[in-house]
Design goal:
Elements: H1 20-28, E1 35-36, E2 49-50, H2 64-67, H3 72-87, H4 112-119
Antiparallel strand pairs: 1-2
Amino acid sequence: MKNRVVITGMGAITPLGNNVETFWENIKKGKCGIDFIKSFDTSEFKVKIAAEVKKFNPADVMDFKELKRMDRFSQMGIAAAIEAVNDAGLNGIENNSREKWGVILGTGIGGFITIEREKT
């Protein structure tokens, strides 16, 4: 017999919203997350636009000690995973049953800050 998989919670940190509800509302409204880059000076680059995540504060969901050891993309992934766990109602679940559930995390690419820091 095959085990079934059920999606019970979702989380999102995106250019269209920092939670599932805001993201979905903006999708339905046809909003676009692409804008001029504001997170760094683009004067030396040809590309001036991107789909940046805006107003994301990882300290809202994570401890400072954890934050300083993670790239921004990891912080976003963890924040989305926390939202998914809360959305599924699993946040207060007993430790002994946690081996029965998991979080699937997807990212297109990440770690640019670390890659840039390591090459300089």
